[in-house]
Design a protein that fits this description.
The complex is a heterodimer of chains A (301) and B (255). With 301 residues, chain A is α/β, with parallel strands linked by helices. Chain A has two domains: 3-157, HUPs (Rossmann fold, 3-Layer(aba) Sandwich); 181-299, Rossmann fold (3-Layer(aba) Sandwich). In chain A, 23% of the residues lie in helices and 29% in strands. Chain A contains seven helices and 16 strands. In chain A, the strands form three sheets. Chain A has a seven-stranded parallel sheet with strand order 5-9-4-1-2-3-10, sandwiched between helices. Chain A has a five-stranded parallel sheet with strand order 13-12-14-15-16, with helices on one face. The longest helix of chain A has 14 residues, at 86-99. Chain B folds into two domains: 2-203, Rossmann fold (3-Layer(aba) Sandwich); 225-255. Helices cover 27% and strands 31% of the residues of chain B. Chain B has helices at 37-51, 68-75, 95-109, 129-137, 190-196, 238-253, and strands spanning 2-6, 9-11, 17-18, 24-25, 31-33, 54-61, 81-86, 114-117, 141-151, 154-161, 164-170, 174-178, 201-203, 214-222, 231-233. In chain B, strands 11-10-9-12-8-1-6-7-13 form a nine-stranded mixed sheet, sandwiched between helices. A two-stranded antiparallel sheet of chain B has the order 2-5. Chain B has a two-stranded antiparallel sheet with strand order 3-4. In chain B, helix 2 (68-75) links the parallel strand 6 (54-61) and strand 7. Chain B is globular and about 65 Å long. Chain B starts with a strand and ends with a helix. The chains are: A alpha/beta (301), B alpha/beta (255). Chains A and B meet through helix 3, helix 4, strand 5, strand 7 and strand 8 of A and helix 3, helix 4, strand 9, strand 10 and strand 11 of B.
Chain lengths: 301, 255
């Protein structure tokens, strides 16, 4: 029986991982770090068993990497599935280190037979693909997905000795609610082609006319700070799969493009005819976004 | 106080080419200190200046990690010295293997109080190595760090957290990965580059880590990407281009 573990830290969204685990087939245990409510939600999501590391109190969840790493390693798993979130990645590192097991992301296929797991994944940020046969444990990091319910699993509570050298002194909450672009059907994405933050109005007008969410390339969420970090699409940012992805003033660097490859239709607007994104678009317009974008908004009326 | 920055000597995959059989050719790509690592070096340099700490750069990889150019590029960014593992046996190593080898080097240095690393590597971008280093050392790890201050055994760390931020205290050694925009790194000037030539760089022999799994690569290929139409619309007349686009979208995706 293939022994599959899911790690969930501070959030119960693991639908994508549960689906993957069901495709692999086997026993599914979830190691949960966070409040009891998270353990309860994960127990209802289709796993066979939950191992909960107790109420964290005010401890940062990263403080549990030691006990979770030890517990998962002791269970001798075949496959460990981890959501692509910061706290989960911190703990995934401890799991991978204690197992001394390979870790893959951007997975397109996985199957386990007779203790050997075959994984197909993109390499080097998305330029190529590789298939590996892993004899022994393997750790896979992927988008966690939504919170789902319908199941009911027992919860075993572990008396975990979290690392007390790391504590939270102060918390400053977000000024606005987090944005989940993974569900957006239409996205208008803006890049460095935009000269000033004041010009965002013309992008907003287009997004409004399309009923679209707005996202950006990484430089607009870092350094210039025009968007919050949860609005940038890219290999280390949001991974989106809308029906329509309209990339404006984005040249198409690999690190960005990888985040939107799941889009049904990609439209690229860029003044540079040599912009790499034109070789990965469905429709491309070589032109000045300051005239093209308002023209598209107008054409939508 | 001893601070280590774990950095990577890497090239942008944008500059690599992929053969039809899937083999990745890096021969024409330009190697450099990985894009976000200088942010970690800058944060570490500022803390080292404030505390009088020794700032050690650690990197592992193939032979070129220890080339004169690579060493100079790293040292000129503000490190006091380097400890390197440069061995072609590390070709094709994944982030877990890199993390385990880096952890061994850090153990070998001894009495390290803090390890800093960049947000992600330019060539892989998995954001995994710092957490593996921490796991192997038995230390906690924090990512998305924007500020670090204090001294060994009493560090104050600020990090991005769920759209806002948190301030943490670390009373023991910790691995921190810096947010990509935590600070603007200094651009090495002539003085820094010349000084780099005089700073020590030590090489440690490669010792293969004990691995828990055997990995066999059974296939490599170019990515099988979704076929795209590649339909370029003439934009001599912006209004006409827009009408063409909207018409096509109405027809294909029911806009």
């Amino acid at each position: 029986m293939t022994n599959i573990w899911i790690v969930a830290v501070g959030a119960a969204g693991i639908e994508n991982l549960v689906t993957t685990a069901q495709q692999i087939g086997g026993d599914l245990t979830a190691a949960v770090v966070g409040e009891r409510a998270i353990a309860d939600a994960v127990a209802a999501s289709g796993v066979d068993k939950v191992v909960w590391f107790g109420d964290p109190g005010s401890a940062p969840l990263e403080a549990f990497s030691g006990p979770v790493g030890d517990a998962v390693a002791a269970a001798r798993p075949d496959v460990v599935l981890v959501p692509a979130r910061n706290a989960d990645r911190a703990i995934a590192g401890a799991v991978a280190a204690k197992l001394a097991a390979p870790l893959y992301t951007m997975i397109t296929d996985v199957a386990t037979a007779a203790g050997v797991t075959t994984v197909t994944h993109s390499t080097f940020g998305g330029i190529a693909e590789e298939t590996v046969k892993v004899t022994g444990p393997v750790v896979l990091v992927a988008e966690g997905g939504a919170v789902i319910s319908g199941g009911s699993a027992p919860i075993e509570t572990v008396d975990a000795a979290a690392d007390t050298t790391l504590t939270v002194v102060e918390s400053r909450p977000a000024e606005h609610a987090a944005v989940d672009l993974s569900k957006a059907k239409r996205i208008v994405s803006i890049g460095r082609g935009l000269k000033s933050k004041d010009d965002l109005a013309l992008v907003e007008a287009l997004a409004s006319a399309l009923g679209a969410e707005i996202s950006c390339s990484r430089p607009l969420a870092e350094g210039v700070d025009w968007f919050s970090h949860d609005r940038y699409v890219g290999v280390t940012g949001q991974h989106v799969a809308p029906d329509l992805y309209l990339a404006i003033g984005i040249s198409g660097q690999l690190q960005h493009v990888v985040g939107a490859r799941g889009a049904g239709t990609i439209v690229v607007v860029n003044s540079d005819k040599d912009a790499p994104y034109f070789s990965e678009c469905d429709y491309g317009i070589v032109g000045d976004l300051y005239t093209i974008v308002p023209a598209i908004t107008e054409a939508l009326k | 106080m001893k601070i280590v920055v774990a950095y990577k000597w890497a090239a942008n995959p944008q500059d690599a080419s992929v053969a039809p059989n899937g083999a990745v050719d890096w021969s024409r790509a330009k190697y450099a200190v990985s894009e976000y690592d200088p942010v970690a070096i800058e944060l570490a340099r500022q803390l080292a200046d404030a505390t009088g700490a020794e700032l050690i750069g650690v990197s592992v990889g193939e032979k070129q990690v220890a080339s004169p150019m690579a060493k100079k590029a790293a040292l000129s960014r503000g490190l006091d010295k380097l400890v390197l593992v440069a061995d072609d046996a590390l070709a094709g190593a994944g982030p877990v293997k890199f993390g385990l080898v880096l952890a061994e080097v850090i153990k070998g240095i001894g009495d390290v109080d803090l390890v800093l690393a960049g947000d992600s590597s330019i060539d892989v971008g998995q954001q995994t190595v710092p957490a593996v280093i921490a796991g192997a050392l038995g230390w906690p790890t924090v990512s998305q760090v924007t500020k670090v201050s204090g001294t060994a055994g009493d560090l104050t760390v600020e990090r991005n957290f769920q759209g806002g931020s948190q301030v943490l205290k670390a009373t023991g050694p910790v691995v921190l990965s810096a947010a990509a925009d935590a600070v603007t790194p200094r651009v090495p000037g002539m003085k820094d580059i010349l000084a780099a030539g005089k700073k020590p760089a030590e090489e440690v022999p490669y010792s293969a880590p004990q691995l828990g799994s055997a990995v066999e690569v059974t296939g490599q290929s170019k990515l099988t990407l979704k076929a795209r139409k590649g339909h370029l619309i003439d934009a001599a007349d912006p209004a006409a281009a827009a009408t063409t686009l909207v018409g096509a979208l109405k027809a294909t995706i029911n806009l």
